[in-house]
Amino acid sequence: MKLRVLDTTLRDGEQTPGISLTASEKLRIATKLDEIGVNIIEAGSAITSHGEREAIKAVTGAGLNAEIASFARAVRVDVDAALECGVDSVHLVVPTSDLHIEYKLKKTREEVLSQAIDACQYAVDHGLIVELSAEDATRSDINFLKKVFSEGISVGANRICACDTVGMLTPEKSYDFYSKLATLGAPLSVHCHNDFGLAVANTLSAIRAGATEFHCTVNGIGERAGNAAMEEIIVSLNTLYGEENSFLSKPEEDNYNFETDINIQELYSTSKLVARLTGVYLQPNKAIVGENAFAHESGIHADGVIKNAATYEPITPELVGHRRKFIMGKHIGTKGLKNNLNELGIKANEEQLCEIFEKVKSLGDMGKCVTDVDLQAIADNVLEFEREQKIKLEEVTIVSGNKVIPTASIKLKVDDKDILEAGVGIGPVDAAIVAVKKGISEFADVELEEYHVDAITGGTDALIDVIVKLRLGDKIISARSTQPDIINASVEAYLSGVNRLLEAND
């Protein structure tokens, strides 16, 4: 069965505390959502502000394939605001629980029903697709809820949606609840919140009960504990409910063949885009798209994955556009270590491998996670092999102050040739990197993709840990340096990466 996906990252997701997207940022996210196959994009709530309407207009004017919707309360002024933006549809939301009707709206059920039907009829008469949505539906009287939906359908509502607004359902209750609404005569949508961590499970149960559309946000962002996460629902439908899953028995009476139009291989890149533009970064162990979702440190796990990825991975990282990582720390095994050494092009015999293994374990016991740069240094030392450095830093001098433009002068040695260069920047680190880039310009056009700095210890003499990601053509390498001086650490990390890139291109 084909399911429709309504993504509300740009509306419900933007209600996450601290998020305020510009029109251009909304358009970038909407374009990506359209590219990956989202059927309906809720671009915002048109009544909110002039800026919100301009953002929605940017999305509706982009010529996307997806249906573009605006959130609207069950009042004509909200529908008018949506019409002004040129949307295809309205997500027309009316509170249906006595709790909301009495305390928030201070109305009667009859007044709320009349208002909902009037707004629905008004939107239909003005050519809009209407998804009539019941707020706090799961705490509503089921007979009143059915009456609201039935009368809405009678005046032209195209779809109905029941919202678990504060995440009160369990998977069992979700199946029972949505089963009661699936036969009302219009396509049924499920909209779940994650207050108890059950939004995805409740959404899947609702789909099994007959919902043909689900609402979601990328990375599960949203107010309070967030919404059902798109990537988790899509991969669950694909893997746990798909025909290919032979590990779970399935009752014959259940229809588990659910499909969507989503390009599953773009889920990770979509997650990264939304995280970057919203500033809401994911916890490392976030399912499907977290940085540790396919990371292995345990020696037993790494050994199993190397032999057959299915031993400790329910899906391959490539399915969602992610990548596998073997983390080097105190739990690493020799098989995982050997795999990392092979990726670095380092050949070690059994005796050398054991020595490298012990050094990595020792650093892990000290609480350090060993990077590929650290491993390279450890291996070089054990193998008694000093890798030839094409470019070496001889000296760096910084001039900076309140009324002085930060200026750096550097001395590099490139194949026994001294190179002197200077650069200015918005700060001393920037000035130093600018000077280095000028100094190596004739050898390589290396781009700094990412720069990250942490203070490892406390105090003014703290050790500074600098991690950079560099690109040369289609080759990307991370490099790291830890020193008390942030400028020296930054320059050395940068040059370490440059040397490795140059070596890889030789």
Provide keyphrases for this structure:
single chain, 506 residues, alpha/beta, TIM Barrel, Double Stranded RNA Binding Domain, eight-stranded parallel β-barrel, three-stranded antiparallel β-sheet, 16 helices, elongated
Q: What do you see in this structure?
A:
It is a single chain. This protein folds into three domains: 4-278, Aldolase class I (TIM Barrel), CATH 3.20.20; 295-382, no CATH class; 391-505, 2-Layer Sandwich (Double Stranded RNA Binding Domain). It is 38% helix and 21% strand. By secondary structure, it is of the alpha/beta class. Strand 12 and strand 13 (417-424) form a beta hairpin. The longest helix has 20 residues, at 486-505. It contains 16 helices and 16 strands. The strands form four sheets. The chain has an eight-stranded parallel β-barrel, surrounded by seven helices.
